[in-house]
Amino acid sequence: MAGPSLRPHVHWAQRHRELYLRVELSDVQHPDISVTDNVLHFRAQGHGAKGDNIYEFEIEFLEPVEPNPVCRVTQRQLNITVQKKESNWWERLTKQEKRPLFLAPDFDRWLDESDAEMELKEKEEEKINKMKIESRVPKDPFRHLKKGYLVMYNLVQFLGFSWIFVNMTVRLFILGKDSFYDTFHTISDMMYFCETLALMEIVNSLIGLVKTPLIPAVLQVFGRIFILFVILGSLEEMQSKPVVFFIFYFWSIIELFRYPYYMLSCIGIEWKPLTWLRYTAWIPLYPLGGLAEAVSIIQSIPIFNETGKFSLELPNPLNVTIPFSFLLQISPIALVLVVFANCRYLYKQRKRHLGPKKRKMK
């Protein structure tokens, strides 16, 4: 059971417009911070000089402040920023002349008035210079056209892959395993359209319409085109194999989250459940999709051996034929590297979008 409330050590510093308070408490829980009648009220559970306890204090400020303090909690301390109502320099922090025992200067942030004025002047000059630079940069007259194009592109792709997913799901429920064997003949036209249209993602990255790096876009788009057009599209024997169902199904599920996420991002909308799905669904789906693609390549090797399709015949005097199946035998290694590169890129994106952020509380 927690003991009686105690006062923590508090260090303070100021600038012309702000007050900084650093509360020496670690592992802070349930901080309650407010400003009423120009008095800061603080109460929190945390580990301080007297161990794990409830700590609280009050500070009546020398001059009026804004009633909305900003709090940032870290593992070792708690920082509070309070805005002054008027930009000036205070001779002390508290209304009472005698400094409270728990309060001390924060020498890590301490500046005298002249240094603070110089810092403020530098910040204002930096702000003015930034505004001048921004005013020199001309606004893109085609920005609305570009945004409209990206919205339409992502919408069309979302609708295409939605059609594929719904069609395959309905057929699976109605026909069961029998739907595996004619997936290609039923779905391939729409898949050809969507994956051919996906070449625009390389163009978009190349000309700077999107921030996606070029290499991940190239690896994904050309990897899928190779599987779709070369492994499946060129061999009738492959088109009736069950692996086609799993390749198309994994591809479509991934895009059900990716394209609407990008479409909403184009118009400045973020829906958190969709963001979570966009940067989480790939964790099982990318390896499973890569596995299905590898299986299709392995299954196609005997067929390419038998037909000699795409084999390279060298002219005399070499008179040597390089079978296409030889290249396919080493392609699973390349496929593993491609999947690894894409997963590594998406993992970094996931950390950036879903990683822990510093808590801020008003």
Summed up, what is this model?
The protein is of the alpha+beta class and 362 residues long.
What does this structure look like?
By secondary structure, this protein is an alpha+beta fold. 52% of the residues lie in helices and 17% in strands. It is built from nine helices and eleven strands. The chain has helices at residues 113-136, 143-175, 183-197, 199-206, 214-232, 243-266, 272-278, 282-307, 324-354; strands at residues 10-14, 18-23, 26-36, 39-48, 51-60, 70-73, 78-83, 103-105, 312-313, 321-322, 359-361. A six-stranded mixed β-sheet has the order 8-1-2-7-6-11, with no helix packed on it. A hairpin with a 4-residue loop joins strand 6 (70-73) and strand 7. Helix 3 packs antiparallel against helix 5 and helix 5 (214-232) packs antiparallel against helix 9. It is elongated, with a radius of gyration of 31 Å. The two termini are 29 Å apart. The model is unreliable at 358-362 (pLDDT under 50).
User: What structural class is derived from the secondary structure elements?
Assistant: alpha+beta
- Tally of DSSP β-strands: 11
| Radius of gyration using CA atoms only | 31 Å
The number of helices is 9
Q: Name the helicity range.
A: 40-55%
Helix-strand pattern: EEEEEEEEHHHHHHHHEEHE
Shape: elongated
State the separation between the terminal residues, measured CA to CA.
Answer: 29 Å
Mean pLDDT: 87
